[in-house]
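Forum: Protein Structure Q&A
Topic: Joint prediction for protein chains with partners

I've read a bunch of threads here and the consensus seems to be that you should model interacting components together rather than docking separate models afterwards. I'd like to see that in practice. Below is the full input, 1564 residues plus whatever partners are listed. Could one of the regulars post the assembled result?
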Amino acid sequence: MNFEFSADQHELQNQLSRQLADAFPIARVMRVLEGDLAERKLMWREFVELGYLGMAIPENYGGVGYGYLELCLMAQEIGRLGIPVPMLSNIYLAAEAIVQFGSEQQKQNWLPKILSGEVNATFAWSEDDNGQAPDVINCQLDSGLLSGVKTPVPDTDMADIAVVVANGRNGELALCLVNLKQQGVSLQPLEVIDEASPHASISFDGAMAEVLGGVAVDLDRLFNRAAVLLAFDQVGGAQQCLEMSKSYAAERFVFGRAIASYQALKHKMVDMYVFNELALSHGYFAAWALENDADELAQAAAGVRLAAIKAYEYAAAETIQIHGGVGYTWEYPCHIYFKRSRIAAASLGGKRRWQNKLVSSLIESGATI
Amino acid sequence: MNFEFSADQHELQNQLSRQLADAFPIARVMRVLEGDLAERKLMWREFVELGYLGMAIPENYGGVGYGYLELCLMAQEIGRLGIPVPMLSNIYLAAEAIVQFGSEQQKQNWLPKILSGEVNATFAWSEDDNGQAPDVINCQLDSGLLSGVKTPVPDTDMADIAVVVANGRNGELALCLVNLKQQGVSLQPLEVIDEASPHASISFDGAMAEVLGGVAVDLDRLFNRAAVLLAFDQVGGAQQCLEMSKSYAAERFVFGRAIASYQALKHKMVDMYVFNELALSHGYFAAWALENDADELAQAAAGVRLAAIKAYEYAAAETIQIHGGVGYTWEYPCHIYFKRSRIAAASLGGKRRWQNKLVSSLIESGATI
Amino acid sequence: MSENTAMNFNDSPEELAYREHVCQWLQENTDEYRDIDFQSMTEHEELPYSRRWQAAKAAAGFAAIPLASELGGGGGTAMQSIIFSQEEAKYNLPFYGYFSIGLGMAMPTMATFANETFKKQLLPKLLSGEHIWCQLFSEPSAGSDLGNVRTRAIKDSDDWVVNGQKVWTTQGHLSDYGIIVTRSDPSVPKHKGLTFFFLDMKSAGVDVRPIKQINGESEFNEVYLTDVRIPDSQRLGNEGDGWKVALTTLMFERQAGSEHSLGLLEEGDVMDFLSSITLDGKPALDDSYVRGKLADWYVKMRGLRYILYRRLTAHSSGSVPGAEAAMGKLVEAQATLDMTRFCMDLLDLNGIAITGSAFKALPKQVKTYLKSPGIRIAGGTDEILRNTIAERVLGLPQEIRTDKHVPFSDVKG
Amino acid sequence: MSENTAMNFNDSPEELAYREHVCQWLQENTDEYRDIDFQSMTEHEELPYSRRWQAAKAAAGFAAIPLASELGGGGGTAMQSIIFSQEEAKYNLPFYGYFSIGLGMAMPTMATFANETFKKQLLPKLLSGEHIWCQLFSEPSAGSDLGNVRTRAIKDSDDWVVNGQKVWTTQGHLSDYGIIVTRSDPSVPKHKGLTFFFLDMKSAGVDVRPIKQINGESEFNEVYLTDVRIPDSQRLGNEGDGWKVALTTLMFERQAGSEHSLGLLEEGDVMDFLSSITLDGKPALDDSYVRGKLADWYVKMRGLRYILYRRLTAHSSGSVPGAEAAMGKLVEAQATLDMTRFCMDLLDLNGIAITGSAFKALPKQVKTYLKSPGIRIAGGTDEILRNTIAERVLGLPQEIRTDKHVPFSDVKG
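Posted by a regular:
Agreed with the consensus. Here's the joint model:
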């Protein structure tokens, strides 16, 4: 048993950490929050050019040929710096959907384009339905034509194509690839809580769509895989919140003492640390399960997702609290994380849904807490 | 609107507080915890002789003729001192059941005996059924004969009679009075978590039983009324836990400072205070609803029960924590409250059941949180 | 001590009469606002309406009901004030919080410490909404620790010359006047060298800059003071007594504020939202996870309301609200964040959208998400409030202080 | 730093071989215990079995697997120790915790500081379970603050004469030997005047009195020391170095303890219980309130296990466990109380009964209810553990201390 990333993997993480910090300082992130979406596109192009995008994708599809363990570590560094790049929709979901479910030809056709940044993909699953049942999908795919509304769809400021969750003619879930730049597709931008994370409603009115692989797809499997990667982003963010808290609390004096010396804040930071370590450690197990496609993946993914949601939401709210008044200002970076933490908590479905998934997988596998 | 007990009521409470503290010092409570049930009987006799037992019961039935507001305040003082007298089973439930549902003759027959201590009653509702549905009762009453098992039944060390929840012949819920000192009734004492709160299983095998009032009774109404009174006992206990914490923390020095000066403990005591105040304030509203038999009683009872469970469980656990090692010893009184808090949390059914009752009553009444 | 009257959760006959009086007045005076969409107005569009409504209330004696008449208020009871607020909340009216610092803090402080001329000149305009007031207490390193104020006031013949920076000045950009704490003597221990004034916000050298909050709005300001001259006649209290005056002001604020909850996520919002959605095809209110959470919040939010009622009764019989009033904000601020997150969560990805949501109740929750971290800080952080309750209500010892009894100029930080 | 090998959650080939070796040995050596009901035995009935099992393990090299061989241990890896524990837990065996203080604290301390004669004479008997050891550190006013020890040791020719009171001495009433911290010089600051010894618990003047706990059991003792003579040859470390020796002992304890969780409410107990009951006529595990709670605990309890695995890997590559080990107890102690209450709650009034319950899994939870407040205190309260993590792991500043650099005799409290 070896419950640690390898020395090479840690070295890669360090290298990434330095490169990303140099390339994407917080001032650039703030510019995107201010609404500068051109800056966001530029950051994405530069990120693509760093050459790590296909970390977990085989070289014959334009990937780098590392694995998911390395992709997890990259996600953690992106999350730490709060870089507003569309990794979840484009890589963890859309590209991954093509890898998992696409035909050989679809892989060869789409993956190199996505990994080179020639084509940006997004992933459209959510619908504006009061039903709130995960598998109730109203978008309909019939004879290669897609109709219905997806909302909110992430990263619509950049996306050229979308992988869309729809109902096939026989009622099975289908994934299809849709070019967003065609007639029969219209976008309605939405105001959401994070200015750096553009979302929109997309209406499809008989848009041409290409079915991905066979018709029935295991969407749970895709979400489980993405949940692990997103969790590393969340943990990275949560760890950064703790670091910011420690620095600020060491420098800020109240009643003649650094506020870091007050038990109320010390213990709050300990609680952050504990939640972060719990999440990170679930992450180790989940990363292993992802890389090895282990039977435990469903359980590991639900576990790390819940742990990461808890850790990030706590750290992001409490770092504002520790910063006091300035933490609530636009000028300080706390809100980058407060907003990201909520988007992440919602992006693959909320807590209650994953609690149910976790307990179901525990019951199925006969596992215990 | 006047959201305060009257000056007379507060004066009565003060008087009770002094009398009870003089008569029932903690050393006597400890003796009962040690297993001295004769001491418990003696305490009960002395308590009866103080003359407050029928606080809320009309004088023509042997009561004192105050009201439920006064009874609430007495419950708070009993809870504060942790006195192991069977108020819930005997007065808040059994006597109250007779008041609410008994015929005139039953009231005249039983209430004076109960209030004078001539006869001790208990209330038997719980059954050892995995069904866990509140209204699924297996005890059967047929032609005046009762059969089935009730467990745990409280205060069986003293009880002469029991008010038993059973199914009538037509399937409606019925309450019946049963003499426990007859053939066809056998007791099996149970080991429970509080040595000062004896419970037993009681088997009825065709025991003679007297139906209380009409056959169909509104058991919810009885439980709601008892919940308000029990909540005042709980709040009194929780307040005492805070007082003990404050005293101990002021006297105990660690690292050269009174532990009361450490933020971790200060803030813990503030949280105790906040929970206690929330519970007490729900108590004010619930006491008013009880006294006036207001439409809001169901909602008020569920609210105060949940608030009181939370406050007492928190205060009782955290006062041990604040006391450190000695708090975990038998010698210190913390465990009196830790045990009482759990018995109280279970005695009228657990938290989840009351959460459901609360939300149902909110929905029904169209009320909002 | 309580009166010897029975506990009663309903209106007394006097209260009922007052409520009827209020209801009638509101019915007769709110028609002109009924169909106006204030929600989508800018501050500058809304402000004239707000002033008009405030003037109407002032004329009818509803502008400062619970404030003692010798302090310029209506001399009514706290209960009357609650009754008015309850009834007022039923109408569509412009935001009238612009005047709350003036009414709650500046007016009683001015009434207590200002000279007669100023009182006559300024208080009526404050009451009627013609003037907006702000308070200039906090500074970049004097937030929780108000005694740490560095803004310097130096006497110069009949004036004081003030230099420094204030922060978190609510409505500073709209204000005509402000009350301010300054340091007049740095050579004595920190709480002894302060002096309190009021100033004309249009004075030369006053530079008000809005602070952008994490939700993109700006309710607060930084105020830079450069050689601002304040006449000595605008000093409130003695030289060096600024700390005492500030404590008095804060006590007035507590009295004024103690009657209201934050109301960011108002009662019923959560219940309404949950009634409107389904989970896995069943009504959300049937779900036992949802019911458990709802019950927890009921205990907190409704409990706070009952605590408020108890305080009101105590207040009515003459007792002054203590630090236990801090409890309300402490509990409500955290509960607001929790409720907000919970509602958003149940909608999965739809929970992040401010526009475009099919669920009418939700945009309020979503907006509250970006406000709630602020309310856990403004007016005292959770941690400071717990200290306050610990020390002033429970009588627990203070933290060890290293900054007392030393000259302010020697304090670290 | 991690080795350059791939992350692997399964046994390595070496680990698998070791596991098979352990399994075989256990199969061959546990038959005699299989059908014995240890649960209902008294301590004195069980102890001979415990000693026999310990002796068997010692003979086979399984008594102190992870302890360095120069300290008398097996010199194995932490992972081997875990593997042994995992497999051992599958058998019905007598309680062997009687020896854990001896093995985890006394043995490495003796091996480091005692003379060769004592090591040869005492360590084999410790390892084989012939001797039970205890530690005498805490005192009525030296719990969280070990530096506050008042038990006085005064040199008298070749002996030390010791007077004082110790408390929370686990297994003191069964012990043959103990290790003890004393104050040899009260005129120097508190951490400088301490001296460390081991002593024969049968010495004249040693009076061991059991402490009754809130659950009626007695795992701890008070130990009164009246003119107890300890030969100077039994001093461990230099005179005045008692603090340093104690820290070394505690570090050894952390190493030994870091591999195990409290296990009061073992994994599966909660799940088993919930699987066995119904709520409102439906399986409890279908209830979304129950599922939410279960998920929360899974995140905590399973997360702790993964943290432990990470620490084991770090340990295997030579790093010494730091204060982050405190995290395990901090989280598990509170979670245990919460899980316990939750299970009891679902059974309404049936949840308070230790005997007579129809639900097989429950009596364990009920007993745990009365134990869990103790585990939040023993070995460091939640608050002390948070301080430790804050200061030693996160590097946050210490509390202000008023008791440093002053002679112990002047310290307040």
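Chain B has a mean pLDDT of 94.
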